[in-house]
UniProtKB/TrEMBL annotation:
Stretch list, region Disordered: 667-686
Name the UniProt record assigns to this protein: Solute carrier organic anion transporter family member
Keyword Ion transport: yes
Cell compartments where the protein resides: Cell membrane
Organism of this sequence: Serilophus lunatus
Keyword NAD: no
Amino acid sequence: MEMSSKENTCFFSNNTILPVDRSSFKSESSTSKEKQPCCGGIKIFLGALSFVYFAKALSGSYLKSTITQIERRFDIPSSLVGVIDGSFEIGNLLIIILVSYFGAKLHRPRIIGAGCLIMSAGTFLIAMPQFFMGRYRYERFSSTINSTVNISPCLQDKSQTPLSALEKSQAKINAGCEKEAGSSMWIYVLLGNLLRGIGETPIQPLGITYIDDYAIEENAALYIGCVQTVAIIGPIFGFLLGSLCAKLYVDIGFVDLDSVTITPKDVQWVGAWWLGYLIAGVISVLAGIPFWFLPKHLPKPESRKDSSTSSEHSKFIIEDNKDQCKSYQQKTKIAEMAKDFFPSLKNLFGNPVYILYLCASISQFNSLFGMVTYKPKYIEQQYGQTSSKSNFVIGLINIPAVAFGIFSGGLIMKKFRIGVLGATKLSLGSSFFGYLLLLSLFAMGCENSDVAGLTVSYHGTKQMSDYEQALFSECNAGCSCSKNDWDPICGENGVTYVSACLAGCQASNGSGKNTVFFNCSCVGIFESSQSSSAVVGPCQKGNECPKMFLYFLVISVITSYTLSVGGTPGYILLLRCIKPHLKSFALGIYTLAIRVLAGIPAPVYFGIAIDTTCLKWGSKRCGGRGACRLYDSGALRYVYLGLTLMLGTVSIFFSVAVLWVLRKRSSPPDETLSANGERGTCGTKSRKDNFANSDCLIQSTYWPEKETRL
């Protein structure tokens, strides 16, 4: 009885489709009017989606550019910053399946608009701690803080101990110290990023499939390439905004800037990280406005109006009438949609090409997420650059190369009419040569800065082990110094000392940034020393470092372009290896897997690995370990690049497996593969006679009409 009712439903549904088609044919006189709304509608949506991609990419990249600023402002290690960065992906994880599956059957543009509002609220929340925390405090010897009394840095007599140092020791046992430090305010940054992730969820799966559904199929790849290219422009402005804000002091507008005694070159410097989030939040609000006025559906292009010749049906196995009736009903109840969930999930995971490509993407995005998240930190620590310059270089040089690479991939796909097999080869080739170029960066690093007691001994020889104990030497034995302080000075011998006290300095002259220390006993005993004076701030990296930094930039740009060329071909492979009615769901599962298995863990374990290369940890005012002040350059280079290259190699192996499966399933002209992987043969005549209900596909020489044969 149930079967008969379902068959009647399908029969009724199939019969009701015909009048709709006939009515569309009857209105051929108004086709010129329909064409304009179609083309204009999809282009308006394309422009709106591009702006949203720009907004979300800007705020996301700005977060990457403020990683070191957040780490210093809240005095937390890189591993915890990685957790904050990964909270964005956790937000995606919470609702990605629901949005991608049910959202495809609801009003997609309005769901995207609502997501923009949520995304902007999260961005504003990230900036809020700045207005609730106290002013930023950094470590400085009291005589450098515009004092008229010059106190000896080497405190031989405890009666000379400055009041600020006594207050600091008492603060460690003060019950209200933790509240004063605002040590847990980073939770607001985490929650704001989590909310950002929730708001961003519908943009990719619903936006891309909306374009693929209503765009002319010859233009689908180009449109997707345009959206992704505009999305890359967002990070350009995001990193440039990060560069600008990093130059501004964190408490700008709240303190007298003349009283600030540190410069952007100092590792304790914190820029106005919060300012960019306010700007990004406003842009996200503006980006969501157009979607509230866009229709749920757009008119189909002429090439897609006839269901029997639809581009989707020319690429995929036509479902039987029963499945078509169930999948393409316009008004489906939530319960019926939920009933289809697990069969759809089983269908996706039964597709070997989809699974293998998913594994390849997870491995590659692990390497890319980790590399991009800590790239500003790597440039700062490896090449001695400021946060502002690191962000400027990434935004102005690397990101445009990525944008050009993604656009080139889409253009190559369209111009040379590359099929699915060719797209797989192009994606694999770009990954292989990109990671091969990345291998050369191992030779383009800088040596450790000479820091007495950490990287070299006080006599100039290379440092051995147990860094903390080595901070003390005979030259500063008579001084009452703390090993937890980080207030570096640069000696005349080119060696950096952790503090003026540990350098054994007996006197100082001047104030603020112009303070000069004299009679520094540890500076005088160094082999190359000619005097015993020192100035505020660390010494610069070696003479070879600027040249290495230039080489690094050149190879980095070429690598970014090469890896990005495979972006659009990979997207096309993903869209064409699945059934048409599962596109939104497949993209949602794909995004979910990338978020869970790459976006969340990669910044965390990259951060943990980077923390292992730290030579000198800062200490919080209330006790406990703070942010890292100095890294081992060699160890940092091998950990950062080694993890990236290892994960990229795993991705290449999975990509080779995808290519192998596709080639294995390639068949003679009269043999095709169905969407569930079953082989079948069909003559040309039977294809023509039974096209609408056949299990065979029509082959074509160029990719827009070429079936996946999967």
